[in-house]
Amino acid sequence: MQSPIHVTSEIGKLKTVMLHRPGKEIENVYPDILHRMLVDDIPYLPIAQEEHDLFAQTLRDNGAEVLYLEDLLTDALADNDIKEEFLEKIIAESGYAAGAIHDGLKEYLLSFNTKDMVDKIIAGVRKDEIKTKYASLAELAEDKDYPFYMDPMPNAYFTRDQQACIGDGITINRMTFKARQRESLFTEYIINHNKRFADKGVEVWRNRYPEGRIEGGDELVLSDHVLAIGISQRTSAKAITELAESLFEKSNYDTVIAIHIPHNHAMMHLDTVFTMINYDQFTVHPAILRDGGHVDAYIMHPSSNGEISITHETNLKEILKKALDKPEIDLIPTGGGDPIIAPREQWNDGSNTLAIAPGVVVTYDRNYVSNDLLRKHGILVHEVRSSELSRGRGGPRCMSCPIVREDLK
Ligand SMILES: NC(=[NH2+])NCCC[C@H](N)C(=O)O
Fold it and tell me: Which regions span the lipid bilayer (predicted)?
């Protein structure tokens, strides 16, 4: 059976992609919780939605089918038993496995139609929205001033991270911070219960339950047998090892290149500093390269005794040449490598380029130095508006989860 998921590169023509249109969750962010919510500012929702619609339209205009996470999840919950099971889990993962608050939340959420319920779960539930049957100690005394029973999920529009499609399968990710951990439960229900995916032979390379942390922003599909992955603030060596074991055992993948990057908020994922945009071209934030273009990379292969062999290599160009079998690699520095422009543009996702075909990319308009440089290197650049979307600290690659790409010729 042909899997409904097929992604064998970062650059093959984009055929199907999953997005989430930012909603009310954005308006449930206020200054005291910015840090907890992993954002640095509060986008102005109507403009963020407008910008997001233009982003989606750019993808459609270039031949991609755009699916929305919220619709896929709504369809996945069409059966009442599945919907109830999902509700139990999401309420438990929000901190209420049983008791008055759990019951109040469940009754409240069940009062919506399924689509509105999904939107509500993403938006968050404030304490003053529900009435509990009896007062619990938690309600009376815990976090009294905290306004939510269920936190908003303002990062849901970064659909890159909750999961990653690799080959004909997917990783459903155990995410690092509490602010995002519930998001991958959505993916689990979509894969198991949405008709497009359920019983269609989708391999789950790694699910969200083992301990090691991993996010899709770190998972870069370089080819039909090579995966690059960041060892980062969000992805641990443990998860990478487990994923490599699973891929080596069950898929065509025979090479995992784990690249160590700084562990900080500006560079939270590999795709904030390094993205593939053509057969032999990449954008790279100069801050991750030591003199002479060196990084710390660990190349993993299956070895004959069933173990994984690991070699440490540092020359990024040489690593990529070998992995992709190319005579040369063009590394295009974000912001032209200027000491101020590079970090400024990287901060607003100047390295976070989404390839929609080989040599064709979608980027934020605000990163005009990086965009001009891409054009000088022969790349076709579609710029999208970015005043509000960028405040969530993610760019076009973060905002999209490719489900199907054409194979490279
Ligand atoms: N793939 C990415 N770079 N995603 C960016 C996600 C940004 C989001 N605020 C977070 O911290 O999780």
Answer: none
- Residue 315: strand pairing partners: 294
Atom of ligand 1 nearest to the CA of 154: 9
Over the stretch 31-58, which tens digit does the pLDDT of each residue have?
999 999 999 999 999 999 999 999 999 9
- Assess whether the C-beta atom of 268 lies below 6 angstroms from ligand 1: yes
Query: What is the location of CATH 3.75.10.10 in the chain?
Result: 49-68+154-405
Q: How far is the CA of 345 from the centre of ligand 1 (A)?
A: 16
> Which atom of ligand 1 is least distant from the CA of 160?
1
The Cβ of residue 254 has, within 10 Å, a number of other Cβ atoms equal to: 14
pLDDT band at 271, cuts 50/70/90?
very high
Catalytic residue among 123, 202, 323, 398, which?
398
Contact 203, 169 (CB under 8 A): yes
pLDDT tens sequence across 189-208:
999 999 999 999 999 999 99
139 pLDDT tier (thresholds 50, 70, 90): confident
Is residue 19 within 8 Å of 159, Cβ to Cβ? yes
Is-catalytic flag, 398? Answer: yes
Architecture field, domain 49-68+154-405: 5-stranded Propeller (3.75)
Q: How far is the CA of 160 from the centre of ligand 1 (A)?
A: 8
